[in-house]
Amino acid sequence: MNPTFTVVIPTYNRAKFIRKAINSVLNQTSKDWKLLIIDDASTDHTRSKIEKYMYHPNIMYHRMEQNSGIGKVMNQALSMVDTPYLVQLDSDDWLPKRTLSVLKKYIHKSKKSTALFYGNMNIWKVRSGKYTKTIKVKHKTFHNKYQFLKYNRWMVSPRCYRVEALHKVGGWDTSDRYEGRIMEDRRIILRLIEKYRVRYINQILYNRTKHKGQLTDSKMKFRRNYLRKKTFKFYLNRWGKKYKAIYGYKEGYLVIKRLKKVRRRRR
Q1: DSSP secondary structure string, 175-193?
Q2: 258 burial type by CB count under 10 A (0-12 exposed, 13-18 middle, 19+ buried)
Q3: Taking the model in full, what pTM does it have?
Q4: Are strands 33-39 and 59-63 parallel, antiparallel or unpaired?
Q5: Is the peptide bond before 57 cis (omega within 30 degrees of 0)?
């Protein structure tokens, strides 16, 4: 019988962290999973770090021919997944032991039109190999697509997607000027949330790290803000031009401070 989940670990030069991510899958209380590691043409010793896991019948490894970016990596993963659900686990993060058990419980309780399940997470700071918990991020239920569009906290995690829904919306968008390397998480959820339900689970289901390798320079902030504005405008237009965005900045990033209802002129 095919497992319920494929946990996908997209990775690029995360040899220092990837074993922790893999072990967190192996240690799940639920064994109802496959693990797919997609290496985006790493130039470090990522491959040697994962070789000892390749004996496991439920672990697969695929290396991209060239560095392609997270959007194309996730589309490659989608083309290989044969389970009903896909859980994305970044290679420098890890899952609590009961994550898949909890997700499975809520999947059984939810309508088939639910395309995404997510929960809360802990943020850990990593210095010299030591992990220090900094904050707990509690997400929320989105009652409509506009609430998610203007959500400006940490991106929701874990992201457990219904694979059929991912195929129906066309997977991850790589048509932008950065070819899906930026904001792939927010943009795939926007594709889903306009057609499907999403389900919030009020439990810690993910551990995310902050470390030196994630530093964002001013050039990257410019790119992200460019794509954020383009994305916001695209969906507001697509959804009927009912609202106008009032923009602001939070920690250097463009955000929607509020949505103003557009008044239609009577003819």
Answers
A1: -STTTT-SSHHHHHHHHHH
A2: exposed
A3: 0.94
A4: parallel
A5: no
